[in-house]
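Why show two proteins at once? Because comparison is the fastest way to build intuition. When a single record is shown, students tend to memorize it. When two are placed side by side, the eye starts asking what differs. So, the first record is below.
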Amino acid sequence: MGALLDAVSLADWREVVQGALEDAKGGDAQARNWLAQYLIGKPEGKAPTPLTVVVQQLNGADPVVNRLAKPLIDRQQFPSLHQNDDWADGIRSRIASELVEKIKPVETVPNPATARPGED
């Protein structure tokens, strides 16, 4: 990876991206997909089929509502299983606080167009 970063400057990479942008605007589907992959990301799940959506609507089911409500329903139905939730949340909170203290903030470059990796 170091050799790649030495061989390809940020200016070079910027030209590649600019070329892909121009190609995408010109109708190049491959350039558009490549840019979208980095700008938007690939979807992690599949969208439900139209038939699935229609069946859910006819049944009055809403998967999003069900997923959001499940933890609350479980907490009410099975309180003994959740008696330590506050304790676990406290531990998570303390660990998150420690991580914030230990992780150095990301330094920003005033002019990213002229910055090169490895320059100090």
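Second record. Ask yourself what differs from the first in the token line.
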Amino acid sequence: MAVLLEDIVQSVEMWLKLTKKPQPYVDPNLDPVLLVPGIAGSILNAVDSQNGQEERVWVRILGADYKFRTKLWSRFDPSTGRTVSLDPSTSVKVPEERYGLYAIDVLDPDMIIGRECVYYFHDMIVEMIKWGFQEGKTLFGFGYDFRQSNRLQETLDRLAAKLESVYKASGGKKINIISHSMGGLLIKCFMGLHCDIFEKYVKNWIAIAAPFRGAPGYIASTFLNGMSFVDGWEQNFFISKWSMHQLLIECPSIYELMACPHFHWQHIPLLEIWREEESCDGISRIILESYRPGESIDIFKEALSGNSVDYNGENIPLPFNLEILKWAKETHKVLSHAKVPSGVKFYNIYGINLETPHSICYGSEETPVTDILDLPFFQADGLHAEARVGVPAEHRGILCEPHVFRILKHWLQAGDPDPFYNPVNDYVILPTAFETESHHEKGLQVTSLKEEWEIVSEDQDDPDDMASRRPFVSSISVSQGGNMQSSRSEAHATIICHPQNEGKQRLELNAVGVSVDA
């Protein structure tokens, strides 16, 4: 609540031009940071080769599904390992503004209402700037075409060039890489294939929520049903599940997220299907069939055998792609052999308290699957780590968790030391219930504030005009929303501008703030 009142006072002072807009704190001693997003975490622009025009196709609201189908749908080329847009005149490009941060900050910069649902690294970027990081000096981003393989040479060449440019821009300081989700696989592929470059430019690598051994349940569902970028009502503004499904079937990156074939799982990921089976005596039985990762491939092949799309009047078959599967197996070999160089420190932050879906089940004992073709229509890092920390959070939400920010701040040695963070046991010291309640009465806290300014001007007053003038009154209100676990605060202020008298003008600010505990 005190923060809200302080914001009001600062706003009035800036309005009166008593203070300038505060410049962000910059710490020139910080090591540079490169942020690397995961799947669907980069803005993608479609470039028309005929006229050179660019337009954002991921993410957008207006005409999103149409542009997605006409510009991003693609086919895999086994001779190059690239997935190429079906539209021969379209190429996909990642914007480079703001030193690469623009593409990974807010995925739809034009969105106003409900903008939080398209935040990616936004909250983390804001927090890091508070710690003293500066865009283009110590803070950079690396967006990429997430449809492509994580070991595509074109992407790895871009990453190598990015590391070199960041190294030079920061005055020859080694880089801290922070990756999220599939971005961890991209970094691990680069580390495995270009270990010398990685060791030359990288100081620390912090992986957040990286699916190092694959995301078997998620990917099985993707192959059979597609996926949606967001949940709930927001998906109506983006891409239909079916359109996304057709894209992902031709994306090498998705196949590279299949269950790691050489990992000794504590609980083997399974694809489970309730099937109705008729015995030789004519009596049908309901049985639960289970398929291990290698066995699931036959189900994917059968379920997608008739899958196709209509593109510009042409029917294009899109079955489960065995050429991409072959490519992905080579990627898994690269990932399994990659090691952290001796001069680089590796840290791993992973989500806990929300189970990762390793297995997936279709149908039920009451409603079994009668035809595999109907399935599409149903609705451990292995590296030497300096530290591994589990944070209660969901996959995308972990990027805006205050707990994660405190961990990163400590590992990056940024800003002032946090006296309430214990890096040994990784816990945050919070006030006791008694200490909290001692500052409140029945969960309600009220704070009042009064401040006055007197502005001296060289302008002379017109005596005839003085009597006709009246005080100007305006108001400001700010609030900080809460939920079931947090408090709600509101602050209201009234500003009175009195008429100028004898070269002086007086302003009054009366404010009251109210905070109610949940």
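One difference worth noting in the second protein: The chain has 14 helices and 22 strands.
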